[in-house]
Amino acid sequence: MGLVALEALALAIVTGWQVVWAASTPVASMPTAVALIVLSALGAFAIAAFAVGVWRGRSWGRSGGIVVQVLIFAIAVGSVTGAYAHWGIAALFAAPAIVGFLALLGSAREAHPSSPSD
After folding, report:
1. Distance between CA 103 and CA 61 in Å, rounded?
2. How far apart are CA 38 and CA 11, in angstroms?
3. What value does the mean pLDDT take over residues 95-106?
4. Residue 4 near residue 51 (C-beta atoms within 8 A)
5. What is the pLDDT of residues 6-38, one digit of tens each?
6. Handedness of CA 41, 47, 50, 56 (dihedral sign)
7. Burial classification of residue 107, based on how many CB atoms lie within 10 Å of its CB (0-12 exposed, 13-18 middle, 19 or more buried)
8. What is the mean pLDDT of residues 62-66?
């Protein structure tokens, strides 16, 4: 699915930005910055693997993609709380998560159609 692949690309871009930021500005804790970069890179790789799984019609790709959409939606909900709450950022995260979730559910239904009931 293209949306899951775009999410993987977006996280890869954010990971690259984190590398540039950590290299160009003083950080409070370099081990923490490196850990965040590694986790972001692993996340981008995992989401890309889910996108490949969805493209190949594998159920693990769809289920992993659905988990990713739920996590992105949780980030959107968190974006409207706290000192830096902003509805625009929440909408920016929530919209593709909802669309992706519904599309993945739809692709699961296409892969396993219901048997006719008599």
Report:
1. 13
2. 12
3. 93
4. yes
5. 999 999 999 999 999 999 999 899 999 999 999
6. negative
7. middle
8. 95
